[in-house]
Amino acid sequence: MNGVRLQPTSTAVHRGWRRTLGELPSALLFLLPTVAVLGTFNFYPALYSLYLSLFEWNGLSPHREFVGLANYTRLLASGEFWNSLRVTLLYAGGVTLLALALGLLVAVLLNQPIRGQALYRVLYFLPVITPTVASGVVWKYLFDPTQGVVNRGLAEVGLEGPSWLSDPSWALVAVIVVGVWKRVGFNMVVYLAALQGIPKTYYEAAQLDGADSWQQFRHITLPLLAPTTFFLVVTALIDAFQVFDLVYVMTSGGPLGSTDVLGYYLYRQGFRYSELGFASAVAYVMFALIFLVTVIQFRLTRGGQDDA
Amino acid sequence: MPKPWKAVLIHLLLAGGAFLSAMPFLWMLTTALKPESALYQPPLLFPVHFEWENFAKAWQAAPFPRFFLNSAVMTVGIVLAQTLLSAMAGYAFARMRFVGRDLLFFGVLGTMMIPFPVTLIPSFLVVNALGWIDTYNALIIPRAVSAFAIFLFRQFFLSLPRELEEAALIDGAGRLTIFFRIVLPLSTPVMAANAIFSFLFAWNDFLWPLIVTNSPDMRTVQVGLAMFQGQYGVFWTLLSAAATIVTLPAVLAFLAAQRQFIAGITNTGLKE
């Protein structure tokens, strides 16, 4: 009898307990590896980086000296840093805008009822998935002043090309070309999907009203693509602010710092000169830059939703 | 239907662009097949006779077999870990009820906003403190989880009907059994899409392997290629052969899983 009477009570207690904890035990089992890895290699490093930026430390010595904001003031007073910031913004702006325009152009052309779409799509997309190091190696050859195909091509039409990667005023241009080459396919694929989502009836209505192709593009296609464009600009900027591999392989930041992007500057300070505190300050400046773009994106997309 | 002249114009433009897009690959391949002496001849796109030896020379000039092994181990490790762990986490977030679930999920998504350079130095210090420099642990474990993949898996699990799992729950099956017996077999499409992303990420990755490996024995193909370039600066035939070897797996993987890959990109692009 006792047992029968106890049974419901214990289940009720059990239920109450379960309600507070939910499925915590099994959830822990499922989430433990994720929490451990993201905690150790994302959250903790992000905070620790900020902390490190307040110290002067070479990574080896047991002593690290607290210097407050000195790394940041040193950064802001450094011509190298401002040059690096300028180069990064030029690279990011150049790659983002050019790849956006070309990606849209290719997508619009591919959106016509023509043959061979699948083949074109693959050809334009290949650079996206090519390893950046291999791309850098090959493009370095293409840009070789005497043997490279770029200058040989220019010579064929009677032009003398610059010495590209060893010329301070052309090296960044060359790196941007490769950045654009690697990005167009991605933009094209996303734009193409967005274009295919625009209802044909909009264009038919516009044609009835006598709108020509350009007017249709300007007043129907472009406005309807705005959210896609926005997404592509933000992701391209965030990627481009962090560029490293291409610069490492093609120019090592040179000549004369003309391609010394922030990612490479950070790498040099941290891993060549072992200035871990100073490099962490550089990292946080990059973080701020990227965070700014993300915040702007968040604000604007919210604004867009309010309008709709 | 476009007028004929318009179609021709479109094809001309597209073919011109596609040529520019593919030209570096062609150039890489044809250079890799040229004898060194033919380099200075006028820019013939196709070599007159094929010098397959360049591949063998490049393969032996640096420890490429070892680089390949390292990259293969790292890539397989990352793909398996990211797929399994992300599926598990995505499942917990989609189906289980527990304290702090939403907070934790936002935390996971939040890690996507932390740029890699910010975590680089402390992550290196952690790996160093663990004694993992020059080990597969260092190459795999820090990247064993992908927040993006967790998000994809969660979305997918939310779209699955609950009935199957509920029936099993009533029969007394535990969450692990349900996950491995019922849910995972249903998620092959997401697993495939995710695997190709992970594969390309891991195979092409450069900065992290560069930092956590010192010994030539632990270099991955990308780091190995960069080092190779440092040594063989202007031996373009060998460099092109090496670059071709390193690029091939990425291109093959992409061609094999093209549809899933492009669908994955457009889905995320449009959802934003």
Low-confidence stretches of chain A: 1-10, 303-308
| Termini Cα gap of chain B | 33 Å
Number of strands of chain B: 0
Average pLDDT metric of chain B: 88
General form of chain A:
globular
Main beta-sheet annotation of chain A: 2 strands, antiparallel
Q: What's the tally of helices of chain A?
A: 13
What number of structural domains do the residues of chain A give? 1
How do the helices and strands follow one another from N- to C-terminus of chain A?
A: HHEEHHHHHHHHHHH
| Oligomer description | heterodimer
Q: Supply the helix-strand structural class of chain B.
A: mainly alpha
Number of helices of chain B: 14
Explain how this protein is built.
The complex is a heterodimer of chains A (308) and B (272). By secondary structure, chain A is mainly α. Chain A has one domain: Orthogonal Bundle (MetI-like fold). In chain A, 76% of the residues lie in helices and 1% in strands. Chain A is built from 13 helices and 2 strands; from the N terminus they run H-H-E-E-H-H-H-H-H-H-H-H-H-H-H. In chain A, strands 1-2 form a two-stranded antiparallel ribbon. In chain A, helix 8 packs across helix 10. The termini of chain A are far apart. Chain B has one domain: MetI-like fold. Chain B has helices spanning 4-32, 53-61, 64-95, 101-110, 116-129, 136-140, 147-159, 163-170, 175-186, 188-204, 207-212, 221-231, 236-256, 258-271. The radius of gyration of chain B is 23 Å and the shape is globular. At the A-B interface, helix 2, helix 4, helix 5, helix 6 and helix 7 of A face helix 1, helix 3, helix 4, helix 5 and helix 9 of B. Chain B: The chain crosses the membrane at residues 67-91, 103-127, 139-157, 178-203, 234-257. Chain B: It is found in: Cell membrane.
